[in-house]
Design a protein that fits this description.
The protein has about 325 residues and is α/β, with parallel strands linked by helices. A hairpin with a 5-residue loop joins strand 12 (about 240-250) and strand 13 (about 255). The chain has one domain (about 5-325): Ribokinase (UDP-N-acetylmuramoyl-L-alanine:D-glutamate ligase, 3-Layer(aba) Sandwich). The two termini are about 25 Å apart. The chain has helices at about 20-30, 40-50, 65-75, 90-100, 150, 170-185, 195-200, 200-210, 220-225, 230-240, 280-290, 295-310, 320-325, and strands spanning about 5-10, 15-20, 35, 55-60, 80, 105, 115-125, 130-135, 155-160, 185-190, 210-220, 240-250, 255, 260-265. The protein is built from 13 helices and 14 strands. It is about 40% helix and about 25% strand.
Length: about 325
């Protein structure tokens, strides 16, 4: 039996969320609904400009794959996460937050000097999230941050598409996939963001290799990746990149392909106030379901319920007890 159900690889970012208006985004030159990489000075400029805005959620360990792995762990999966933090307050906080969530993390020696990554998440009244990310030391995540034995002793390797932006992170993702393939471990990737598909498609293809076992995407990412005009043809094209896949459709639920059949999973009604982390939660709940031997429709239905819960409150994560409640 594998030691871990899921081994995750991604950026380590400490999240701060702020409520803003569309005019705030326009005046600040922030692209709505996308993840934008910024330097520390630009991020601080945004924070200073928005200093009188409401902080909507407390500081939390984040990063797309981390949100997924933490969710899966709270549901009950055995998880491990590979990331890179610095020897600063945010770095110590981040690793403690992972431990508190029951996530094992690989640490290769002492923490390096530098600045732990930070993500400023701007939430507009329509619940859309616009992320401004300073990767900090996460930008230098590399193969030395991997634990090959832990990958080989997992059921799934899960990687975030955001790694494609890092000159060292992308090769690390390729190395992790190759370790998993050689060990017979299933590989899973999220396309992460429409901008990653638009601007880094070649790098994402390198991370995927010939194909992965499981691919996660939202509607826009699936259309962009396949160059399709409609979701049905996109799903047909996705079969070239993955054995199985899940395409989230927001309030309309999801389409999940189990390798044989495409299933439509109904959405769950929610009063959405913050979409940050919805896709991450979907992936975490879906992978948890698979770890328990559930089929794709059941895993997809559970994932839609979990995602609906997360968008109905601020922050990309649920409280520990909310995960337990969803399981009942």
């Amino acid at each position: 039996m594998a030691k871990f159900h899921i081994y995750g690889l991604g950026a380590a970012l400490v999240d701060t969320e702020l409520e803003v208006s569309d005019s705030d985004l326009e005046s600040l030159g922030v692209e709505k609904g996308l993840m934008t990489l910024v330097d520390e000075a630009r991020q601080q400029q945004l924070i200073d400009h928005l200093s009188d805005h409401l902080v909507t959620s407390k500081r939390a360990s984040g990063g797309s794959a981390a949100n997924t792995i933490i969710a899966a762990s709270y549901f009950g999966a055995n998880t491990c996460y590979a990331c890179k933090v610095a020897d600063d307050d945010n770095g110590q906080f981040y690793l403690q937050d992972l431990s508190d969530a029951g996530v094992t993390h690989h640490r290769n020696g002492s923490l390096p000097a530098g600045t732990t990554g930070k993500c400023l998440v701007l939430i507009t009244p329509d619940a859309e999230r616009s992320m401004n990310t300073f990767l900090g030391i996460s930008e230098t995540i590399g193969s030395d941050n991997l634990d090959a034995d832990a990958i080989a002793n997992s059921d799934y390797l899960y990687m975030e598409g955001y790694l494609v932006t890092s000159e060292s992170g992308r090769p690390a993702a390729v190395a992790a996939r190759q370790i998993a393939e050689q060990a017979g471990v299933k590989t899973a990737i999220s396309l992460s963001d429409p901008a990653m598909v638009q601007f880094f498609k070649e790098g994402l293809q390198e991370m995927i290799g010939e194909r992965v076992n499981l691919l996660f995407a939202n509607r826009d990412e699936a259309l962009g990746w396949t160059g399709s005009d409609d979701i049905d043809s996109a799903c047909e094209q996705l079969k070239k990149s993955a054995d199985c896949f899940a395409v989230t459709l927001g309030a309309d639920g999801a389409l999940v392909y189990d390798g044989n059949e495409l299933h439509k999973v109904d959405g769950v009604a929610a009063d959405a106030i913050d979409t940050n982390g919805a896709g991450d939660m979907f992936a975490g709940a879906f992978l948890y379901g698979l770890s328990q031997g559930w089929d794709y429709p059941k895993s997809g239905s559970f994932a839609c319920r979990a995602a609906a819960q997360v968008v109905s409150q601020y922050g990309p994560r649920l409280r520990a007890e909310q995960h337990r409640e969803l399981l009942t």
